[in-house]
Amino acid sequence: MPPSSQTAKSAAPSKIWSYAMSQNPPSKTEALPKPVSISSGWIAFIILSFFSVLAGSIVLISPLGPAIRNLFSWLFGLGAAQSATWYVTRAAGIVAYLLLWLSTIWGLAISSKIFDRLLHRGFTFDFHQLFSLLALGFLALHVFILMADSYLPYSLAEVLVPFLSPYRPFWVGLGVIAAYISILVTVTFYLRQKISMKNFRLIHYTSLLGYLGATLHGLLAGTDSSLPVAMLMYLVTFLLVIFLLAYWLLMLWLSKRPQPAPALAR
Hints:
Blueprint: H1 3-18, H2 39-60, H3 65-76, H4 84-111, H5 121-148, H6 156-160, H7 169-187, H8 197-205, H9 207-221, H10 228-256
């Protein structure tokens, strides 16, 4: 086989990977994007996070500490009667929801090509995959802590089988189904070279159902949903998803409209 043919075959998976969420895959003659390195960005993020935590700790032990703790107690419903495991599972559930939301809007933005003029497509696709993986990690923490909680412990069957929960079974069951959808969508990141692009996209479209199920689960089964900050979080995140979904559908409709024939030169 000529070297040029081997190069073209080896480049094909990379091209599919870089344009996985695009509505219009690149042509065979289109140049491949250059690889993107984000290691320095992650180092900066870790350093910034460390100093942010350090600064927050200093503020909490200062004279402003009691006032800040009282504010957080009102916003997040913190109380002395609840165990540490309950705090952890609540926090993990909220973080998992926010990461799932980030993955959802990131995927919609990639499909709508919003980032194309700002960020490298391979870079944005990497972050889309990263948000999905992080969401699954915090989801696992949320589930495991529920099983370890002493106030309302869950059995393995109750966390794996929808609608078996002793607490609000329907809305918790929607959360279980949303978790399975999220797992399926995330797994396809690693199977995209073995399944067709059409199947890859169809599976990723179901992530919208997963996000909707997670939102309903958080609103109607979460113990924090009545808090002001939680209501604001769910409202803002949901409206942003609706906006990006409408924008994506509009762009998709415009791209499929028949283009007028060019006028013939006289």
